[in-house]
TrEMBL record:
Residues 22-213 form the Electron transfer flavoprotein alpha/beta-subunit N-terminal domain. This is Electron transfer flavoprotein small subunit. CDD domains: ETF_beta. It comes from Allisonella histaminiformans. One of its GO terms (molecular function) is electron transfer activity. InterPro entries: ETF_a/b_N, ETF_b, ETF_beta_N, Rossmann-like_a/b/a_fold.
Length: 263
């Protein structure tokens, strides 16, 4: 079977820096990592490959520096690597990103199962996976947390729900987004680490896909992030209430809470 994993290079939250002039995140290899939940999607693909055989392909959309996360995937055992990169794709929101990835995927051989991390730590929308499934016209399950297996063309998976969990079955081709509860990602092998720098990365540009230019990048994005800023830590202060009666103390506390807009 053919498995495809969509991954993303994101800014490490512990090393996040904001450009004060542009109000945008500083993105470079020094503070960029693979989106953590995508590691669980990768592990799920490897485990399914171990079950039934086949290949695991990995695709990411981003600037040339996003090659780094593809090579990390190669060190873990990925068979094929695809980088969707073009200036025309810059500034894409979740809708434009999903549209671009779908058209890039359609240039490749059909896949039986597509896996994505539940969400990325730099936007936390959890929209790209389900949007891709809708555009591809295939069933999808979000927030997979266990029981992942394949029998013929039927895949079984346990997913998290608001009030519990349920086990569902669906036919391939299909798409699954993964939660951190699903598995424990493997470490790269020594063989993989030695081979990752020479692994072939196939590039897909706007010239390679049959897409409407008006739906790519910032032009095709109905939502846009205007500015990003770090959250200032709250200043902690102790409040000593010294009313002579309980009623007086309550009034002092209520006034203090009103000033900080708690009530």
């Amino acid at each position: 079977m053919r498995f495809l994993v969509c991954i993303k290079q994101v800014v490490d939250a512990s090393k996040m820096e904001v450009d004060p002039a542009t109000g945008r995140l500083k993105r470079n290899n020094a503070n960029s990592i693979m989106n953590p939940l995508d590691l669980h999607a990768l592990e799920a693909a490897f485990e399914l490959r171990d079950q039934v055989g086949g290949t695991v392909s990995v695709i990411t959309m981003g600037p040339p520096q996003a090659e780094a996360v593809l090579r990390q995937a190669a060190s873990m055992g990925a068979d094929e690597l695809y980088l969707v990169t073009d200036r025309a794709f810059g500034g894409a929101d979740t809708l434009a990103t999903s549209y671009t990835l779908v058209h890039a995927i359609q240039t490749l051989k059909p896949f039986d199962v597509i896996l994505c991390g539940q969400e990325s730590i730099d936007s936390n929308t959890a929209q790209v996976g389900p949007e891709m499934a809708g555009m591809l016209g295939i069933p999808n399950v979000s927030h997979a947390i266990g029981n992942l297996s394949i029998n013929g063309n039927v895949i079984t998976v346990k997913r998290q729900m608001n009030d519990g969990a349920e086990v569902v079955e669906m036919k391939t081709p299909c798409l699954i987004t993964t939660g951190k509860e699903l598995n424990k990602p493997r470490y790269p092998s020594i063989k993989g680490l030695l081979a990752k720098d020479t692994a072939e990365i196939h590039r897909i540009t706007s010239a390679d896909i049959e897409a409407d230019p008006a739906r790519l990048g910032i032009k095709g994005s109905p939502t846009q992030v205007r500015k990003v800023r770090p959250v200032k830590p709250m200043k902690k202060e102790n409040l000593k209430i010294s009313g002579k009666t309980a009623e007086e103390s309550a009034a002092i506390l209520a006034e203090a809470l009103h000033k900080i807009q708690v009530i």
